Amino acid sequence: QMQKGRELSLLQREWQFEDIARARERLGVQYGWTFEDIDRAIRFASGRQKIELIRRRDREEISYAWQTQDLQTREERLQALADREDERYQNAIDHLKEIHDLQERVFSIQQAMMDENRNYTVNMIALQKKQREVEKARFDENATYTLENIKRELEFHKKWENYLKAQAEYSATIKKNTDDWKTSMDVFSKDIDTVLGRIEKFIDKYMGPGQGAAPKPGEIINTNIQHGDVEYATGVDAIFTKPTNIRVAENYIPERVIIQSASSSPGGINISIGDIVVNADTKDAVIAAVVEKLDQELEYAINQVAYRQSMR
């Protein structure tokens, strides 16, 4: 748009200068003709008429000079306006060039900033993507670890519950076995004094020194048979060391050990203990037979208790 205005202004200026040149040319021709006519008239005039023609010629010269000066002034002013317009146009061009250069610089700076921002954005996106991948991997790892911990805790609690259940069952079994054993031992111990008393009374009656008193637990009974001593303790730990004395047991004696009958015979004493009949002619033989039977019965009872425990 500015260039079109410039072209129109130059065209108008050119026309104006052409008009001034044409006006000057025509003015010169016109005054030339006028001066030529006046000069010819002066040559042929005389007197007062000649003076008037000379005065007219002078006035025409002054008028020509004025018009010529006006055309010159008009041309100079037009040239001054043209120069100023050219200067203004050049300034505008320079200004536009500066603006263009500045815009190019701004564009270059903006382009560089855009490139930098784009690179920064790309780097940030890549970094955020990598960070999300790391966070996802960490989350997956934590989730896996948490699930494994939960599984381990569930398994532990399950095992712990089973352990507590087994412990409770075991404790109940131990308690029941203990109660059963205690009951059995209580039953075993009920007739200890009776059984030992019957044995000792029987022995004292038929083979002892005739003292007739029932022995007390822990008491040692002496006999007239000189074959050493016997010390008796219940269970499989019964030890026969000296077959003349018997220590009445303070521990448990099975209730099934019962002397069913006893009688004297020429060969000694017949003693029926359970399904075994003992014939002994000495006190230590009787004691040995009784103690052996007691051991057998107690071992049988212990084996029965162990068997019942294993069946549970």
Task: Provide mean pLDDT, rounded.
Answer: 71
* Coarse structural class: mainly alpha
Number of strands: 5
- What is the spatial order of strands in the main beta sheet? 3-4-5
- Backbone CA Rg: 78 Å
Distance between the termini: 115 Å
| Helix share bin | over 70%
Roughly what fraction of the amino acids lie in strands?
5-15%
Quaternary class:
single chain
Tally of distinct domains: 2
Write the layout of secondary structure elements.
Blueprint: H1 2-44, H2 47-190, H3 192-206, E1 220-221, E2 246-247, E3 259-265, E4 268-273, E5 276-280, H4 283-311
Helix pairs in contact: 1-2
What does it look like?
The protein starts with a helix and ends with a helix. The protein has 312 residues and is mostly helical. Residues 206-262 have low confidence and may be disordered. It is 74% helix and 7% strand. The protein has a three-stranded antiparallel beta sheet, with helices on one face. A two-stranded antiparallel sheet has the order 1-2.
List descriptors.
312 residues; mainly alpha; 2 domains; three-stranded antiparallel β-sheet; 4 helices; 5 strands; 74% helix
Summarize this, please?
It contains four helices and five strands, in the order H-H-H-E-E-E-E-E-H. It has 312 residues and is mainly alpha-helical. A hairpin with a 2-residue loop joins strand 3 and strand 4.
